[in-house]
Write a structure and sequence with these properties.
Blueprint: H1 4-14, E1 16-22, E2 25-32, E3 37-41, H2 52-58, E4 63-67, H3 76-89, E5 95-100, H4 102-113, E6 118-124, H5 134-146, H6 149-163, H7 170-180, H8 183-202, H9 204-209, E7 217-222, H10 230-239, E8 244-248, H11 255-258, H12 260-274
Parallel strand pairs: 3-4, 3-5, 5-6, 6-7, 7-8
Antiparallel strand pairs: 1-2, 2-4
């Protein structure tokens, strides 16, 4: 396999950078490839290039859209509306959705807001927060707002190193995140991401009481994920009783970083079964 730096260059040349506006937020995303559309939703740090290995594996047979989250968005509802605006800008009516961590939570919210536009979902390293998480997230939000920005940057990078400690390419990704945000953007992004998670935890009861989207779905997780508990995952699985589940014995929170080949194969196989037999290069029904 080529180096991560070389693969990043290929990603950036294969998927062209684009922008659109949704409400008060400017969205940047990468798009390329041919076939049915798959949209890739990253974790809370919100950098779409983190999907590069999966995106490059899928692009020969699918139209791939990989989004960055605007650091100005502070709720999953705003993020879901932005994802729909990206699909609209690309002329995509229905898409397969892949979400990691907070991106999996976003996929769940997206499927509630626009169920008719979801063809299938793959969620990894994710679940639903609940009442037990509200005090912790509230304390974290207050700490992020008060923390000196240099300390905040060190804390963010340290948390990423801890999550990716078993990955050979972890330092590349830590450096990429470090370079992606100015101090002001990093604070705003961190605070808004935490606000969104807190709000989602506060409305967990509402989400569980309302009917969820039902369709082809795969849950991928590692047994040793310390950031998403079994309770978090089970909340989501309870809403999707027909969901397929793939469990890795190790790999931590971010399988795409720690076990990229196996993760990419699992997701690719699932999506290959869910694509129409002859897509004819369509990106989905135009809206």
């Amino acid at each position: 396999m080529s180096s991560i730096g070389d693969r990043a260059v290929v990603f950036e040349s294969t998927l062209g950078s684009r922008e659109c506006v949704a409400g008060a937020h400017r969205w940047r995303y990468d798009a390329g490839g041919e076939g049915e559309t798959v949209i890739l939703l990253p974790g809370g740090i919100g950098l779409g290039i983190g999907w590069l290995d999966l995106a490059l594996a899928l692009a020969p047979s699918m139209r791939v859209i990989s989004v960055d989250y605007p650091h100005t968005a502070a709720s999953f509802d705003e993020l879901a509306d932005g994802v729909l605006a990206v699909l609209d800008a690309e002329g995509v009516g229905g898409a397969h959705v892949v979400g990691q961590s907070a991106g999996g939570m976003l996929a769940e919210v997206l499927s509630r807001r626009a169920p008719g536009r979801i063809r299938s979902m793959v969620l990894s390293g994710t679940g639903l927060y609940g009442p037990e998480d509200i005090p912790r997230l509230g304390q974290k939000l207050a700490a992020l707002r008060a923390m000196p920005v240099r300390q905040l940057r060190k804390a963010v990078l340290a948390s990423l190193r801890a999550a990716w400690e078993d990955a050979e390419e972890a330092e590349f990704w830590v450096g990429r995140v470090d370079a992606a945000f100015s101090d002001a953007q990093l604070r705003q992004s961190s605070v808004n991401s935490c606000r969104a998670l807190l709000h989602l935890a506060q409305r967990a009861g509402e989400l569980r009481q309302r009917p969820a989207w039902q369709g082809p779905m795969l849950m991928v997780r590692a047994k040793d994920d310390t950031l998403i508990t079994a309770l978090h995952t089970q909340r989501l699985l309870d809403l999707h009783p027909e969901c397929d589940v793939r469990v890795f014995p190790t790999g931590g929170h971010s399988l795409l970083v720690t076990r990229p080949a196996e993760y990419t194969a699992a997701v690719g196989e699932f999506l290959a079964r869910r694509r129409a037999p002859a897509s004819g290069g369509s990106t989905g029904a135009a809206v």
